[in-house]
Amino acid sequence: MRPTVNDIAREAGVSLATVDRVLNARPGVRAKTVMAVNEAIAKLGYVRDLAAANLARSRSYRMAAVLPDTESQFVQSLALALADAGSMAATSRVELDLLRFPAEDPHALATLLAALPGRGYSGVALMAPETPVLRDAVRGLRAKGLPVVALVSDLPNAGRDHFIGVDNRAAGRTAGVLMGRFLGGGPGQVLVLGSSLLARDMVERRRGFDEVILRDFPGLDTLPSLETHGSGALLRQVVTERLANAPGVRGIYAMGDGNRALTQVLGELGLSGRLTVICHELTPHARQALERGEITAVITQNLGHLARSTLRVLRAKADHLPLDEGQEQIRIEIVLRENLPLLSDSGQVSAVAAA
Amino acid sequence: MRPTVNDIAREAGVSLATVDRVLNARPGVRAKTVMAVNEAIAKLGYVRDLAAANLARSRSYRMAAVLPDTESQFVQSLALALADAGSMAATSRVELDLLRFPAEDPHALATLLAALPGRGYSGVALMAPETPVLRDAVRGLRAKGLPVVALVSDLPNAGRDHFIGVDNRAAGRTAGVLMGRFLGGGPGQVLVLGSSLLARDMVERRRGFDEVILRDFPGLDTLPSLETHGSGALLRQVVTERLANAPGVRGIYAMGDGNRALTQVLGELGLSGRLTVICHELTPHARQALERGEITAVITQNLGHLARSTLRVLRAKADHLPLDEGQEQIRIEIVLRENLPLLSDSGQVSAVAAA
DNA sequence: GTGTTTTTGAGGTACGTTCCTCATTTTGCA
DNA sequence: TGCAAAATGAGGAACGTACCTCAAAAACAC
Hints:
The structure is a homodimer.
Chain A: H1 5-12, H2 16-23, H3 31-44, H4 50-57, E1 61-68, H5 73-89, E2 94-101, H6 106-115, E3 123-126, H7 132-143, E4 148-151, E5 162-164, H8 168-182, E6 188-194, H9 200-216, E7 220-222, E8 226-227, H10 232-245, E9 249-254, H11 259-268, E10 276-280, H12 284-292, E11 297-300, H13 303-318, H14 325-328, E12 333-335, H15 346-354
Parallel strand pairs in A: 1-2, 1-3, 3-4, 4-5, 6-7, 6-8, 6-9, 9-10, 10-11
Antiparallel strand pairs in A: 11-12
Helix pairs in contact in A: 1-2, 1-3, 5-13, 5-15, 6-7, 8-9, 10-11
Chain A binds a DNA duplex through residues 2, 4-6, 14-18, 20-21, 23-24, 26, 28-30, 33, 48-58.
């Protein structure tokens, strides 16, 4: 049998109350006694029964996940993955509320965040661009003892407790090496598309991509990034125009969203499957395009993993417990048609069902 | 507050005892009453508090992971990942014992397995080649109520409860498409190495690989598999010999173990970094070789994930609970130098430390 | 050595569930 | 209608921990 607090009390020759004081770092115990108890703990190999502890504390966790109200498939999939992880976590006294904010309104976001501490939350996961207003809001939350984790895109200067997502520079490098090798090193031109050149993620991806192409594939010519601002129409226009003027284009690197519009345009131009197309995020549509051969490779992150990780990290932070860093590291995944994961990851399934 | 069993009793107008009977599927409740209780459950959105339930049951789980006593880095890493997951799971009343069997002795394995039910285990995870003796042993375990999950390599005909690992055919296809694209479709020859042509995994990988090469890259010429039987010396010999006779070799697909010997040989022949080398399993050595550019790509599975998944599945099976299939699916990961995960995945770290 | 403060002990209640037992009510059947 | 069987209720103990109170003991200061 596993040792319990009673066993420790007996072993250390003290009372249960004293063991309890030591275990929970309550004051009023002599250093000597603390030592004795700790020795007993070590000797018996005691591990606190977390289930029983939480039960006794009758502690429960109410977390908030705050996402932009964008309708992009990526955010939708993420929301579903989070909701899913939340409902699974209900068995362990964790509740997750999904909150949305107007994508282009940092002040509305700040107001939303400011209201959270009053509503009984014990942690916040946040996906938002880092603005000065946001930085202050995050600091405010942390000042009130609410842990804040940044989701998908980091908030390094806001002093978040943790970042859950991938290193976008490395993701860009990965795209770069795939593009370079798939094109045999050149010669040829590569079109680069991004939603906005101001977004940190886009900048980092582009930097990583160029880094690799310049160093390892000098025969390739990467064109300046084209901004699509999340608009399908705009994407359509710039891509059509550019492809008409640049007959040497052999590859397209789509750093941002709009994969749907992209594959559509390529189809209309009769270029489906004739170019090497690399994009990010395995949304339901990207998956389809991959299956049909319209997209060559997708650089992605596992949203189910990301969602579960979010809950674990929030919980650990709320309890001031250490993390299992290895488990929380989100990997940069490369998906080709051949290693497309089966369509049974809960988040993805629901996303498709909802689409 | 979350509803409890008492709330359900009140809502359904029955006693706590009856609710308990329904919840735990105990006999002696009319169908009508069962319905009423279930309605109350649905109405209040009750979710059983697993922590409290397990506490009350004072249930604990003792699991066995049975691995061959091979010293390959892969098995070592797997063992460490399992040990690690086991120690993390100690907080949730799960204990994992690592057992080893002589790699080439199916009968010793069968004896080992037969002894398990008597030793208080409530589940077994097993990595072993499927032999007739093993099939019977597995059936014996299951007949005694012990769930059995196959690890890494499947035991489809032994009636295992679950398989935790990747689809090797798809892994081979993935290797194939990478090889094909990296070589620009040809012309050129590809050397294929495997530990043994009898092992199911090798056969499936080879089949997947050929499937893609034949269909999509007819310009490439894949040579017959060379067997290395886990021996570095043998690998060295056959590779040297083959490369001397076949100057057109531009790629090597290493399906089995022996990556260490392979990179060494290539180094000695002055071919490091000059060939496209694709292998399996991100062992510490493969990681190093990847960093140095001696290996181009590694097809792998996340051992930390695999280990945690094993424990979750064993536990779910022991309790006859459903699985979160999405969470348990092990993905086929493609690792290049550019998306090499940081060296903080517990299993990998320990593996390196131990190496 | 007295008085004060600090440390320790003893004991209880609570958390939400499981799993008993025994008594009582309801149901089905002859 | 009566009787056995089935269904339900009432209550309690247990799981391992947290957290509370009050009393007793020990350590400390002067």
